Structure formats: structure tokens, C-alpha cells
């Protein structure tokens, strides 16, 4: 059963979110300590904290509709195969020498942009699928706006088809990851911190814990500065182990972070922030 404390926190969020104009500082203060998932509270709070929705409640419905239409427009203009509109208009191909085509080497070619965009999309699709392979949400289309680009029945080349037919060249990222260890081991912060920072710690913890960390990150006005503090806190909490371990042991520690209590990590990060 839900505890009285949790019910009280839900009520606090609901009180803030029902106001005609959202008190952003109050919402940040509440969210920093974790957002309840009941009733779509986290989804709504993240949209406000990330400036996707304005503070004025009256405009939310129209803003959401506008944003989704804008996103669909971006898909039509930037992802759907270039040239399809021209073909539909019945424009004849008189001389392909002077026409933009898939083999056009010009950097200004729309096809050149199209192929580069596809590489990015494929990499995003690949990263999302491997983020949490055991959770079906990451392996399937979401409501918006996937039918436009994933439906195998539509007349355009689909993202699914591109994923199936294209093999991306993956870059090898050095996994030599350590930090505040003795210098003789030559363990450099940029190696282990690269994954922590670029993926917002999403591969270091279980998904519910990642979401809890993101609550605090998104609630902080200087969220990326706080992310650095979270990473520093992670190192400080295993400092003794790092100082005692050799290269191999420390690599294992940093590649498979041993502490699972993210609240302890966030508390240490907040202490670092308050001491600045």
C-alpha cells in the first residue's frame, strides 16, 4: 500500500501543477528529491522542467498540438526521401547530369544531407535498442510519430528498412576508465567519464534508478554542472577501493559501478554542490 508520506508528496506536486501559472522554483525543489510516477506526474514535470511546456497551464493543449505537428513536419521535410515531392509533381528527368541524385558528390546535395541524417538516425535507433534490451518499450515504436517513418506499408523508404539494410561502422571507444586513482596506472578521467556524461549515466544503473537520477538532473537549473558533481560523488564514494586497487581491479570497478543506492550518490553530489 502507498505510504502516507508518498501520498503527501503526490498531493504537493498536484497542488503546484494545478495552479494557473506554475511556480517553477517550487516545482524544481520538489522534483529534485524525486518525482512520483503516479498519474503521469513525472511525464508532466519533465516537460515543464525541460521547457517543452510553458508555465501557463492554459496554453498546454495548444502548445502540445503545435509541437507534435512541428515534429511531424520535420519528419516529412528532413527524413522522407528527398525528391519524392518532385516526382509526385510530375517533373520530368531531362538531364540527370545537372540534377541532384544519390551519387552527386557535391556537399550541397540534398542526398548528401539525407545520407548523413540517416546515419545519425540509425545510430540513435541502435543506441536506444541496446539501452535496455530486456524492456520492450525500447524495442518498439512509440505513439508519436513512428507510423510516418516505420510503417512498412507506406510509399516511402522506412526507417525499419534502413536499419535492416544498413550496417553502421562503429567507432571503438576506449574503455580505460578510471579517475582519482594513482597516476602510475595511467587511468584518465576522459575515458571512463565519456560514457557517464554522454549517456547521462543510463548504462551505469538500472532504469528506475536512472530515472530517479534524471529527476534531480532535470530539476537543477545548472543540470549539467550537477551531472559533473554526481560523477564526482560516484568516484568519492569508492575512493578507498580505487586507491587500493590495481589497474585491472579499478577498471572493473569503473566499468561495473558497485554502488546501487543512487540516493546515496545524489546526497553526496548535493553536499558537494552546497560546499561550493
Automatic annotation (TrEMBL):
Pfam families documented for this protein: RabGAP-TBC
Matching SUPFAM superfamilies: Ypt/Rab-GAP domain of gyp1p
One GO MF term: GTPase activator activity
GO biological process: intracellular protein transport
Superkingdom in the source lineage: Eukaryota
InterPro entries, per database record: Rab-GAP-TBC_dom, Rab-GAP_TBC_sf
Keywords: GTPase activation
Domain Rab-GAP TBC: 33-246
The protein's name in its UniProt record: TBC1 domain family member 13
Source organism of this protein record: Propithecus coquereli
Amino acid at each position: 500500500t502507498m505510504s502516507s508520506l508518498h501520498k503527501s508528496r503526490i498531493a504537493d506536486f498536484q497542488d503546484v501543477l494545478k495552479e494557473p501559472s506554475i511556480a517553477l522554483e517550487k516545482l524544481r525543489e520538489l522534483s529534485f528529491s524525486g518525482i512520483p510516477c503516479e498519474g503521469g506526474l513525472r511525464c508532466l514535470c519533465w516537460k515543464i522542467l525541460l521547457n517543452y511546456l510553458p508555465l501557463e497551464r492554459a496554453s498546454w493543449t495548444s502548445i502540445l498540438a503545435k509541437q507534435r505537428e512541428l515534429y511531424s513536419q520535420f519528419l516529412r521535410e528532413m527524413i522522407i526521401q528527398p525528391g519524392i515531392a518532385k516526382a509526385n509533381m510530375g517533373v520530368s528527368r531531362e538531364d540527370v547530369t545537372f540534377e541532384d541524385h544519390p551519387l552527386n558528390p557535391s556537399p550541397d546535395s540534398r542526398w548528401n544531407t539525407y545520407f548523413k541524417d540517416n546515419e545519425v538516425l540509425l545510430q540513435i535507433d541502435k543506441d536506444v535498442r541496446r539501452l535496455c534490451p530486456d524492456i520492450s518499450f525500447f524495442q518498439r515504436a512509440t505513439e508519436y510519430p513512428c507510423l510516418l517513418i516505420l510503417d512498412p506499408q507506406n510509399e516511402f523508404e522506412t526507417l525499419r528498412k534502413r536499419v535492416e539494410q544498413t550496417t553502421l561502422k562503429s567507432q571503438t571507444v576506449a574503455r580505460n576508465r578510471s579517475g582519482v586513482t594513482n597516476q602510475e596506472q595511467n587511468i584518465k578521467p576522459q575515458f571512463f567519464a565519456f560514457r557517464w556524461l554522454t549517456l547521462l549515466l543510463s548504462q551505469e544503473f538500472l532504469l528506475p534508478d536512472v530515472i530517479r537520477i534524471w529527476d534531480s538532473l532535470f530539476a537543477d537549473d545548472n543540470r549539467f554542472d550537477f551531472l559533473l558533481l554526481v560523477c564526482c560523488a560516484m568516484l568519492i564514494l569508492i575512493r578507498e577501493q580505487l586507491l587500493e586497487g590495481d589497474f585491472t581491479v579499478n577498471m572493473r570497478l569503473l566499468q561495473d559501478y558497485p554502488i546501487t543506492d543512487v540516493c546515496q550518490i545524489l546526497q553526496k553530489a548535493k553536499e558537494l554542490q552546497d560546499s561550493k
